[in-house]
């Protein structure tokens, strides 16, 4: 059942059992003379000022001290007089306080819709409050929500209200004015209390409120709802365009990366993986394979990582050598690995590099280069080099802890033997320098299969 133009109401928002004052004003008019429980839906309980249960009948009169409590899936309509109507949402509790022309509605918990069709007279007042928190109404329509004692949200469908947060001693902490189409989020936190004003959308209007709007008979409210619905349609259309554009750009990115990957020979791209390599939140392509390095008097072969970054127009190919290294496979095949930065999710490649007296573990992606260094006894003989002192062990452990705190292993590239006849270094030396004696080529390392997996991923619809 819905209400017609002659059935409106007066009651609003307030709660928050801390020290929280919210004051809302708007016009002038006629005080409530009759308070009655107009109707209920579901399970609703009423208690008198002594806390005793009251049987619910049609048009039950509500006197000072009466409390109304709605359970799950239940609602209650309160008639404050013929021009003021309040509707309680499910799982809400309010209390009525009335003395002469002064009316208070204490909202202990939940949510309340209010529609005051005519402003109050100058000598009349109607407040919704809890402790030092007060909402004064003079002729507005909207609803309030109270998630807990320190928060309250006020939404206006018509008119204008002033919202105020006060301390338990009555000191005004924050105040703000909102108008139709705006919401105020009030947070009580002592001296750090705040009021945030913003607009709201049609999706913010709960169903229990939306059911009452058609019968409000208010052109201003109807216009606002129509505007909110139009905004929602425009927003949905914009989101659909953005999603389609994102799909197009993603398809272009994947096609460009696949085309770039296909320009590399199997030796140049023995390993491939997708991941963020420049911290922009978009998947890039990382490949690992043989590189050719021209040096005076000779051509040298070694392994190198290359980052393929889609910049929105074309693929940028960035050899990961920014740390001053000639390549990233310097020590041994076992040292090739890819790491993920824990905080950002960005991928890095690792490169250990050592000289007498120090050791460095380097981590690099397309835009960043990080190194972690620790020392050991530079005067140690080769026989002694493996015997670190307690201080050196503690220093190295501290560095490893720093690395583990920032990075986690994403993929380890190991040149395992093709069969028992060859050691893992056969792969590495074969591909690194073509020094193999009478050995036949051991084939591609197992991680070579990742290249085809990446191709399939980039080719997916």
Can you lay out the helices and strands and say which pair or pack?
Elements: E1 36-41, E2 44-47, E3 60-61, E4 67-70, E5 75-81, E6 84-88, E7 93-99, E8 102-116, E9 125-130, E10 133-136, E11 141-148, E12 151-158, E13 160-166, E14 172-179, E15 182-187, E16 194-199, H1 207-210, H2 219-261, E17 271-275, E18 284-295, E19 298-310, E20 315-319, E21 337-341, E22 347-355, E23 358-364, E24 369-375, H3 390-406, E25 407-412, H4 424-433, H5 449-459
Parallel strand pairs: 8-9
Antiparallel strand pairs: 1-3, 1-5, 2-4, 4-7, 5-6, 6-8, 7-8, 8-11, 9-10, 11-12, 12-15, 13-14, 15-16, 17-18, 18-19, 19-20, 21-22, 21-25, 22-23, 23-24
Helix pairs in contact: 2-5
Kindly describe this structure:
The chain is an alpha+beta fold. Helices cover 18% and strands 37% of the residues. A hairpin with a 2-residue loop joins β5 (75-81) and β6. Mean pLDDT is 79; it is low at 1-32, 322-334 and 418-423.
Total DSSP E strands: 25
Average predicted confidence as pLDDT:
79
> Share of helix among residues?
10-25%
The stretches of 5 or more residues where confidence is low (pLDDT under 50) are: 1-32, 322-334, 418-423
Biggest pleated-sheet summary? 14 strands, mixed
The CA-CA distance between the termini, in Å, is: 51 Å
Put simply, the count of helices is: 5
Total of domains: 2
Q: What integer value in Å does the Rg equal? A: 36 Å
Given the helix and strand composition, which structural class is it? alpha+beta
The helix/strand series, from N terminus to C terminus, equals: EEEEEEEEEEEEEEEEHHEEEEEEEEHEHH
Strand content: 35-45%
Identify the overall geometry: elongated
